[in-house]
Structures are given as structure tokens and as C-alpha cells.
Specification:
alpha+beta; eight-stranded mixed β-sheet; 2 domains; 332 residues; 2,3-Dihydroxybiphenyl 1,2-Dioxygenase, domain 1; 10 helices; single chain
């Protein structure tokens, strides 16, 4: 029943056409075909590299997309998992306690209102058409999912038993007086990765608590899109109007001491506000787009891996310490 890929990500949106237009303009996605209007909804399908996004908005107030948007705003409603045998995948998930939402559609409950759909695995090669500009997006690197406090262990067990994933990384992250637990689970194929995060409810509420409150429960906080050239991707997206989170200069002042030589020059990283981390396999470069969601919940990440297999969690601590140093210096 092996899960091979994320075949596509299904968004529910207030206005699918508007959301698609923004992704085309900002990040270089292209439409697979004209919008379709089946069963009380309008759907636009976008692609770039091996990434496939399906954006759906309700034309009938009884369509499930309407209820999803009313509760959460625009967001990821379904992750479609490409399987060698979707029926076997569904049967395994059900045996291990998954709640089946629509047997004919291969749909099960996932995380909060974000469902999982088992579909046949298809080709994952990048689109044959060249991108309008080089160095944009290639694939979906990972999906970050926020969970209420106390639900992380159960979610990991669900992924292991029902989906056949295995945990590849665990981290307890402290940021000032707030903290969070994180476990990364991955399919046997190595092509589907979920970063599962819950807040430490014994500490001061922080960004995960804020997401859960604004989103009204568990859900996808961000999608991380991989690129082979993050510097070009960031410059291109910025020129198109995308805003990224800024990083204080103190973070880059400490980079050489913390990591040694970086594959991308420190001055380029400083100019673009790109973060860097490394593990035994190599280095990872990442940057987070500023959320444009009305509730400031969902956002995008760009990531370039040069051998690294982990997820940059050290950047959270390093960035926090850099902010502290910069604040202290300004008070002297």
C-alpha cells in the first residue's frame, strides 16, 4: 500500500480564481486547464515542477468548502497521498483506527479538518514546460501541521500505524518563555514528510497557540516548497511583490562562528534574510514568506537543501538569540 508522494494539495478558498491568480503572479505557478465547476464548487488546478495545487471555492453554500472557509478561512483542506494501491492504503488506515469520511473517494480524517485522500501514484517529473524565470519552485519538501497541546503523541502513532510512516526527527524547541514539541514523520519512499508541532501548554502561549486559536483547531500552518536556487527564487518572488520575514543582522554576525563556511556567501544570506542550518549531510537554506492570510495563519516557506536532511529547527533558537543580542546592543 506504500504511500509514494503527495499527489496534490487541495485548498478550500473563499475565491479560488483570486487565490490562483496570486499564486501565478507571486510564485510562478501555471494552470493545468481552465477552471471546472463540478457539484456546487469552482476548482482551479495549478502546477509548478512536481507541485500540484487544487484550489476550490463553493458556488453552493452547502458545499463543504463553504463550511471550511467559514471556520478556518482559506487553507489546506485535503492532502492527496499518491499510493501504489489506494484501496489497500484505505483498508490499512481503517484497521488502525482511521475514521473514513468517504470510502468511494478514499478519504479519511487527518488533522483537525484537514483530511487525507488516497489516490493512485502518478508521475512526479517536473512540468516539461520551462518556467517563465529560472530558479523558482521544484517540489513540496514538507508540510507543517499544528496540533493542540497533548495531541502530538497520538498524531505520531496515527501516522506510523495508519499510514506506515516512521519518525525521523524529534525536537523540543524553547523560544524565550514559550516552547513547543516537534516530531517529523516520513513515508518509506522519503517523498512525503509531515512536521507535527504542538505547544507546551506549561509555558507561556506562543505562535503555535496563536495559530490554533486563529485557525480554530489543528491544521496546516505552512507548505515548504523546495528550490535548487533559493537566492534567485527569493529575488524573483520579491520583485513580484512577495514579502519575506526579516532577520536581524546579529543572526548573520554569528553565522561563521556557529557554522563555519556556508555554501551561499554570508553577505548574500544577509542581503536576502535567508536562514541557514546544517547537519551531518550538508546545509539547508530557508526563508518564510510573510503571511497574507487575513487571520495570519497559513504561509509559505522556500527551502534549498545542499545535502541536509533535517529541518532547520536550530534556526529558531539562533534567530531568537540574535534578536536578544540586537535588543541588548540597542539599549547600551
Amino acid at each position: 500500500m506504500s504511500i509514494q508522494t503527495i499527489a496534490h494539495v487541495e485548498f478550500h478558498c473563499a475565491d479560488a480564481e483570486q487565490a490562483a491568480a496570486r499564486l501565478r503572479a507571486d510564485h510562478g505557478f501555471t494552470a493545468d486547464a481552465p477552471a471546472t465547476t463540478p457539484g456546487g464548487a469552482r476548482t482551479v488546478e495549478l502546477r509548478q515542477g512536481s507541485i500540484r495545487l487544487h484550489l476550490t471555492s463553493a458556488t453552493d453554500p452547502e458545499h463543504p468548502a463553504a463550511a471550511f472557509v467559514a471556520r478556518h478561512g482559506d487553507g489546506v483542506a485535503t492532502l492527496a497521498l499518491g499510493c501504489t494501491d489506494p484501496q489497500a492504503a484505505l483498508e490499512r488506515a481503517e484497521r488502525h483506527g482511521a475514521r473514513v469520511l468517504d470510502r468511494a473517494a478514499g478519504l479519511i480524517a487527518g488533522f483537525g479538518d484537514t483530511a487525507l485522500r488516497f489516490v493512485p501514484a502518478g508521475p512526479t517529473e517536473p512540468s516539461p514546460e520551462p518556467a517563465a524565470e529560472p530558479g523558482l519552485l521544484d517540489a513540496l519538501d514538507h508540510v507543517a501541521i499544528c496540533l493542540p497541546g497533548g495531541e502530538l503523541a497520538d498524531a505520531v502513532r496515527f501516522c506510523e500505524a495508519a499510514l506506515g510512516f516512521h519518525a525521523i526527527f524529534k525536537e523540543y524547541i524553547e523560544v524565550g518563555r514559550q516552547a513547543m514539541d516537534s516530531t517529523v514523520v516520513q513515508s518509506a519512499s522519503g517523498q512525503v514528510t509531515f512536521t507535527l508541532i504542538e505547544p507546551d501548554t506549561n509555558r507561556r502561549p506562543g505562535q503555535i497557540d496563536e495559530f490554533l486559536a486563529a485557525h480554530d483547531g489543528a491544521g496546516v500552518q505552512h507548505l515548504a516548497f523546495s528550490t535548487r536556487d533559493i537566492a534567485t527564487a527569493v529575488r524573483t518572488a520579491r520583485a513580484r511583490g512577495v514579502e519575506f520575514l526579516a532577520t536581524p543582522g546579529a543572526y548573520f554576525d554569528a553565522l561563521t562562528e556557529r557554522l563555519g563556511e556556508t555554501a551561499i556567501p554570508v553577505e548574500t544570506l544577509r542581503e536576502l534574510h535567508v536562514l541557514v542550518d546544517q547537519d551531518h549531510g550538508g546545509q539547508l537554506f530557508q526563508i518564510f514568506a510573510r503571511s497574507t492570510h487575513p487571520r495570519r495563519t497559513y504561509f509559505l516557506e522556500l527551502i534549498e537543501r545542499q545535502g541536509a536532511g533535517t529541518f532547520g529547527t536550530a534556526n529558531i533558537k539562533a534567530l531568537y538569540e540574535a534578536v536578544e543580542r540586537q535588543t541588548s546592543a540597542s539599549l547600551r
